[in-house]
Amino acid sequence: MTDLINLMNDLLWGSILVYLLVGVGIYFTVRLGFIQFRHFGHMFSVLKNSRKADKAGISSFQALCTSLAARVGTGNMAGVAVALTAGGPGAIFWMWLIAMLGMATSFAESTLAQLYKTKDDDGNYRGGPAYYMEKGLGMRWMGVLFSVFLIIAFGLVFNAVQANSIANAMSNAFGWNDLYVGIAVVALSAVVIFGGIKRIAKVAELIVPIMALLYLVLALFVVFSNLEKLPDVLMLIFKSAFGLQEAAAGGLGYAIAQAMINGIKRGLFSNEAGMGSAPNAAASATPYPPHPASQGYVQMLGVFMDTIVICSATVAIILMSGEYVGQATEVTGIELTQRALSSQVGDWGGIFVAVAIFFFAFTSIIANYSYAETNLIFLEHNHKAGLSIFRVVVLGMVMFGALASLPVVWSLADVSMGLMAIVNLVAILLLSGIVIKLAKDYNRQLGEGKVPTFDANDFPELKSQLEDGIWDNTKKD
């Protein structure tokens, strides 16, 4: 089984996804006029009224926090450490690059998710890649395929990954038994996920900003305490990214390939740009400005915050600590991050990382579940009995993750993530014309000094694809 998983990983990540992710990122960056750079400031200004919502949706800020809850987890702390030990410091450069390109990809998928959202039986907004595959492309089979991959990945495998890191962190910091940690995480997760999407959004809105801010403050302390090392660390990252460190030893090509593969793989796991996960949160929002593209900007900010800000904080902590001694470093994952921070601030640093990983990974678990639930509804299995059974299965995977070994769990996550990403990337490429049209409409109105507002009646070619009543007559006279 392990050999099969490794074979699939080599196939997906050895060539297919590396080229596809970079290619799609470049395509949308160019087609959208380098939107992530030209409108960098607008990503922040669009949050000014982001706490507005109606009865059917969560607020844009809650959608951002929910997507960040899924993004900011083990990928930021454990995943960065894995990338460093597997691909060297150069992997960080490629992680940054895929994030910058991925911001444009994230704009595209989240804008589409908003456009094609629907209302479920309880009157809540639902949407995501499966929905725009069905409505925008007329390919329900593609949406079904994506939903199955997402449910496996986010409902099951990724939650096992998050629980795995929580258990490891608690064991390293406090010596707690994995079984008891697993039981505690299952119990807390059950309280939230049985409360539905709005309870999940409220918990994410409360926890994520506080923990992210505390983690960044601690990382800045490490940076300023070792400011003289900063130029050397940056030089190491860039040299390693292009194999300059290894060129003399004749390992140039292999070194670059390893750095690229591990950086892109871990970068995608962390920021999820193009994977098709965050659009499920974006679709649940009541956007302001009331235009699908506004959620594109919000979710672009999510990618930036996740990788360029929070992942970089972990990079700084590890590379400035002296605990990283090359790819021969004996420890990896969350243990390396804990050791690195402890070496800088004392033993309580490891405890802080354990607490941080608990909250980050816990919110990831509940956000991941919300994505899976949305896709279960797409598959028309949203009756109460079916949802209850699925929730129990999800909680079972959380327990499994707390007890499983790291390599197997990460490998399963890599395969499921790769399959999801391929299906979604194909879909957004096929729908790219609509993304460009919506971006131009939004920016035209913005340039005219108006609050960008979308009305389906102005787009007769799209109106028949959209659910009645959601985007009709939104413009105010």
TrEMBL record:
GO cellular component, one term: plasma membrane
Signal peptide positions (record): none
Primary location class: membrane
Pfam families: Na_Ala_symp
GO MF annotation list: amino acid:sodium symporter activity
InterPro entries cross-referenced by the UniProt entry: Na/Ala_symport (IPR001463)
UniProt KW keywords: Cell inner membrane, Cell membrane, Membrane, Symport, Transmembrane, Transmembrane helix, Transport
Membrane topology: Multi-pass membrane protein
Subcellular localization(s) per the UniProt record: Cell inner membrane; Cell membrane
Entry's transmembrane regions: 12-35, 137-159, 179-197, 206-227, 233-257, 301-320, 348-371, 392-413, 419-439
PANTHER family: AGSS FAMILY TRANSPORTER, SODIUM-ALANINE, AMINO-ACID CARRIER PROTEIN ALST
Family note: Belongs to the alanine or glycine:cation symporter (AGCS) (TC 2.A.25) family.
Name the record gives this protein: Alanine:cation symporter family protein
